[in-house]
Amino acid sequence: MARAGLVDNINTNLSRSYSQIAGKRVLVEARYESQFGPGNYSTRLLAKLEASSELDLLRGFTAYGPHREDIVFYLAGRPLSQSASRGETRSLLLALKLYELALIEGSRGQKPIFLLDDVFSELDSARRRALVRHLKNQQTIITTTDADAVLEYFAGEHNLVPLSKSV
User: Fold this and answer.
1) Fewer Cβ in 10 A, N or C end of the chain?
2) What is the DSSP track for 123-154?
């Protein structure tokens, strides 16, 4: 039930965050795919576990339960895993990270530091610009091998701290 609630909460802002990063309006949805519906979940799971306990012991693992359930993401109605480009996948991951930042900020009452490793490598220039705009009020540490991208997207309005070559 907690997982289903979390997925509902994620869906409240996921499309908006993704669309801001992607630079176009796209419906993005997370779905909690469970072996049993939300009604009487515990009762139905327990009955299934009891019915399959002998087989589970022989196999050495349980075939039913939350560890066999998944959260599947859909982009414009299609499963992300089947149709998304690397940039679309990266954009969704960034949207989820932004959701995580908001959760942490809400629970702690202060903004966390956002760490991004080589985030520009799989984003086109429009997505890079959108991400930079989205991070304007967020303290962010970004590593990259593309110094030109850093200068292009961050020079002027941001505090850049280059690493020396001796590090």
Assistant:
1) C
2) --HHHHHHHHHHTTTS-EEEE-S-HHHHHHHH
